[in-house]
Amino acid sequence: MSIMSSRCSFGIPLPLIAMVLSLAVSASGRVQAYTIYVSSEKDNTISVIDGESLKVKHKVKVGERPRGIALSKDGKNLYVCTSDADHIEVLDLETLKVTHILPSGPDPELLVLEPAGKYLYAANEDDNMVTVVDVQKRQKVTEIKVGVEPEGMGISPDGKWLVNTSETTNMAHFIDLETLKIVDNVLVDQRPRVAEFTSDSKQVWVSSEIGGTVSVIDVASRQIIKRIGFEIPGIHKESIQPVGIKITRDGRLAFIALGPAARVAVIDTAKMEVVKYLLVGQRVWNLAFSPDEKRIFTTNGVSNDISVIDVERLKVKKSIQVGRLPWGVVVRP
Amino acid sequence: MSRLEPKNKKKRPHAFPAILFHLLAGLLLYGAATATAAATLEIQIALLSMEEERHIPLSLLEPSIDDTGQMGAEQGISDNNTTGQFTGQSFTLKAEKIKADTSPDEAFEKLHAQGVRLFLVNLPAAKLIALADLPRAKDSLLFNIAAMDDHLRSHMCRPNLLHTIPSRAMLADALAQYLTWKRWNEWFLVVGRHSRDKAYAKALRRAGKRFGHKITEEKEWTFVPGARRTDSGHTREQQEVNAFTQVGDYDILIVADELDEFGAFLSYRSYLPRPVGGTHGLSSAAWSGAHEQWGATQFQRRFHEKNGRWMTERDYSAWLAVRTIGEAATRTSSNLAEQLQRYIMSADFNLAAFKGRAVSYRDWNGQLRQPLLITSPRLMISVSPQQGFLHQYSTLDTLGYDRAESSCKKQQPG
Question: Which residue has the higher pLDDT, B28 or B118?
Fold first, then answer.
């Protein structure tokens, strides 16, 4: 810790030190066993990685072009958007077999499960819709009309809001989950990709891939409270394309995947400023924390691997080779 | 709509913010989809084109189409209107086609009198410039979606004229950069008989010089094309091309045949086993039906489903123009040409265009800077600018006439 503290004293903010300390304390507990699942868009596989050894244990064949993935509430199933197969496949994580298929509307790209685990929401890029699916009844419940090329899907942990982003309309659509109606639309920068809520459901962060920014939106007022930009010496501004976002449960740090810039930006949320850029693989897109939040995993599309970031030290620890064009990543406790 | 969760019935107390919202609706950009009762803002766009002789492609596999750009413009209108339903804006398109031997002035005046100030123009360079110079056009904004002429970017610029179609210089530079990467540095240039072919050849020569290539052989293709398809036609082409291409060694044959009269005959028939590029074979373009990256798949599918064919470069340029207007109208909440142009030419403007990075306009000549695709007839090969071609402002400005190479000065509307 002495090394950490001395490094922290050079410009790393106090809350961060506090967080590092608190994480270090919790780290003394037992090591959690967990599994990492990565979808590979080109290979049509899900790579299964053991969280302890960080080794690929299995590669499971699924339908054409798997992209967005999500765990079922009980952690027994993995929902896979197989975009070119125009449906969602349900992978049993014990047998590693696809047990059944859920309707999704055409070309599903990203999906989220509501906190209660009953409904899935999938963005259909092809027909400007968000499809609501009942996972038990295996039925499409309804469709919600949104902007052109819906993509990002963020659900508030309190279960009140679904935020969908539309790539060509450049909006974050706020959908009230009680009425399933759009209540508000917030204009963000070009080609919004991912919407991620803070754990207290008070903010939603939206990345704009082509705009090169992340908009932090206050959920109550639906106003942008901060537009975070990125600057990396030696990297052209046009190559900085934020996509994946993950925010720690305590809300202190946010990690943003910057695509072709091959960096993950670490943001101190108190200051809304970048504190560090971590060099990872090429075309870094999506992110997932380990259950204890000691690590964050990144999918690096062009280098065909995932990077393992040590969240305490903010250092890239390792990269693991997976299938071609890794896209989505989730971690099962 | 029925509620999904009956237990979750309590109403959220947001009556006050809702009232506040209505009061501010006129001032704010954020429109409420369900709540906006305010009047919608009408944004009229016109497309001016000219009757052209119908082009019959050399390949039976390619459809003969009326390439006015209208389908692309309509897709843009539809995209803008999807956004417009949330922002209270409504976009409409009026397409006017003039006869080949007439002046577009009358059609323009008519549309202008109807209140249209935003124009997409699919006309040859001379007619385009004449239009931009009309006294009444001073308060209008024109988007060139068809004329690739370099002089419109190098010295004949107009403050009310923007170009979404790339210039020949941009296309030639994009191809030349890829050939530099491949180190296919020795070119055999074959130029068609039309002035357009000669203009493209000129751009190729400029690009060759810029990126370190050498034109080791050059010939003009003078055969006048007859009927597009005849029985046993291939035997003639086999003989003709074989004889025509008996020249010294080279790395790639570059053909300039913009009217698609003979370019496609050259591949696989050249005397030496060498690839063909230029207007045919390995080509550079703003758009291609083969392009499906950076989200283009959905965009292409939308277009194909509606129109039964793939999008052309002109359609894409028309879409870009309409989306440019849409983006500016969304951000400024205005339908006034001057205000829109001010935003379009500002540093704030950028547009996602399914090319992996934002596109924007060059302030010295109004040209849209954009990545260009390097394609084969069936697949995408690469995208230029190529890695390693650097620029102090934007690597996209390594394609075409850069600020210092153009005598056009910074554009200001009005």
Answer: B118
* Predicted local distance difference test score (pLDDT) of residue A17: 54
Question: Which residues of chain A make contact with B323, given a CB cutoff of 8 A?
Answer: 168
The pLDDT of residue B411: 58
Å between B270 CA and nearest CA of chain A? 37
User: Do residues A93 and A332 make contact, with C-beta atoms less than 8 angstroms apart?
Assistant: yes
DSSP one-letter string for A60-88: EE-SSSEEEEEE-TTSSEEEEEEGGGTEE
Tell me the CA distances in angstroms from A150 to A109, A156, A214, B97, B189, one per residue in order: 9, 18, 17, 35, 46
Residues of B in contact with A186 (CB under 8 A): 30
Q: Give CA–CA dist B402/A293, Å, rounded.
A: 49
Q: Which residues are paired to A45 by β-bridges?
A: A40, A61
Tell me how far apart the alpha carbons of residues B308 and B316 are, in angstroms, rounded to a whole number: 16
Quote the CA–CA distance of A178 and B11 in Å, as a whole number.
9
What is the spatial distance between Cα B351 and Cα B341, in angstroms, rounded to a whole number?
14
> For residue B280, what are its two tokens?
């045919």
H helices present in B147-289, as ranges:
151-154, 168-182, 195-210, 233-244, 263-266
Model pLDDT for residues B235-256, shown as the tens digit of each residue: 888 999 999 999 999 999 999 9
Q: For residues A104 and A115, which has the higher predicted lDDT (pLDDT)?
A: A115
B302 touches chain A (CB under 8 A): yes
Decide if B358 and A186 are in contact by the 8 Å CB cutoff.
Answer: no
Q: What is the pLDDT of residue B59?
A: 86
Q: Taking CB atoms and an 8 Å limit, are A149 and B352 in contact across chains?
A: no
**Within chain B, what is the greatest distance between any pair of CA atoms?**
84
State whether A236 and B301 contact (CB < 8 Å): no
Separation of alpha carbons B86 and B89, rounded Å: 8
Task: Say whether residue B331 is in contact with chain A using an 8 A CB cutoff.
Answer: yes
CA distance B178 to B199: 21
Q: What is the mean pLDDT of residues A83-106?
A: 90
Kindly state the greatest CA–CA separation across chain A: 56
Is residue A236 within 8 Å of B392, Cβ to Cβ? Answer: no
Q: For all residues of chain A together, what is the average pLDDT? A: 89
Q: For B3, which of A178, A212, A238 is closest by C-beta distance?
A: A178
- Asked if A246 contacts A264 with a C-beta cutoff of 8 angstroms, the reply is no
CB-facing half-sphere around the CA of A212: CA atoms within 13 A: 20
CB contact B12 to A (< 8 Å) = yes
Measure the CA–CA gap between A205 and A328, rounded to whole angstroms: 18
| Residue B256 β-bridge partners | B191
Average pLDDT, chain B: 89
Task: Give the distance from residue A279's alpha carbon to the nearest chain B alpha carbon, in angstroms.
Answer: 20
For residues B374 and B399, the answer to whether their CB atoms sit within 8 Å is no
Q: What is the pLDDT of residues A227-284, one digit of tens each?
A: 999 999 988 888 899 999 999 999 999 999 999 999 999 999 999 999 999 999 999 9
Mutate to test the interface with A, among B7, B83, B293, B298 (most CBs of A within 10 A): B298
| A–B interface: beta-carbon pairs under 8 A | 109
pLDDT tens digits, B147-200: 999 999 999 999 999 999 999 999 999 999 999 999 999 999 999 999 999 999
Residues from chain A contacting residue B86 (CB–CB below 8 Å)? 147, 169, 171, 173, 182, 185
Residue B86 and residue A180: Cβ atoms within 8 Å? no
| Partner-chain residue, chosen from A168, A182, A190, that has the shortest CB–CB distance to B33 | A182
Closest chain B C-alpha to A37 CA, distance in angstroms = 24
How would residue B31 be classed by pLDDT, with cut points 50, 70 and 90?
Answer: very low
- Is A286 a residue whose pLDDT tops 60? yes
